[in-house]
Amino acid sequence: MTITEEDLKKAVDEAVDKATKGLKEKNAELLGKLKEEKETREASEEAKRIAEEEAANKSGDIEKIKQQLEAKHKRELDTASDKATKAEARLNQVLIDNGLTDALIKAKIAPQFLEMAKDHIKARHTPEIGEVDGAVTALIGGKAIGEFITEWSQGDSGKHFIAAPTNGGGGSNGSNSQGKAQTATANMGGTREERTAAIAQKFQLSDK
């Protein structure tokens, strides 16, 4: 039997095909897995990107909510601070007014002149709140209000407001009657400012 070159080539091709068939199938299998893995990886990356975008959007919402809460908190804090400031101012005013009234009474300022004396002092000095020996108190000119009023009442400006001592003698009665007339005259005017001006003019009060 004569084997031709064509037969030999065919036999070789069949042997090669047979020998490489398993390898080709394995290669095709691997290629298929690689393709699947690539598609899975791409799908995973897409899912990750979408998740990151959603997270970014949620983060934006959280930031907006955070800003809204901060703004609301600031408004509430400002309101509370404003109320506290106003309450403190009212408390300070009461402390000053009460301290001034008590000090004037102790200095024997005539009752009918109390408001005039307070207006007279406030027009020339600025009462404030401070501490003396660790205690919160009203101050005028850096001094405790009681100390200031004591000094003021003994000066030219304050002595005119002091109530005259009561006397039972005839001469004293005549003098006292004159004092009453002066009091009635000095207490004229409709407004507090007018009364203060009247008493200041009558007794020629200084600015001290």
UniProtKB/TrEMBL annotation:
Residues 178-188 have a biased composition (Polar residues). It comes from the Bacteria. This is Minor structural protein GP20. It comes from Dyadobacter jiangsuensis. Residues 27-83, 165-196 are annotated as: Disordered.
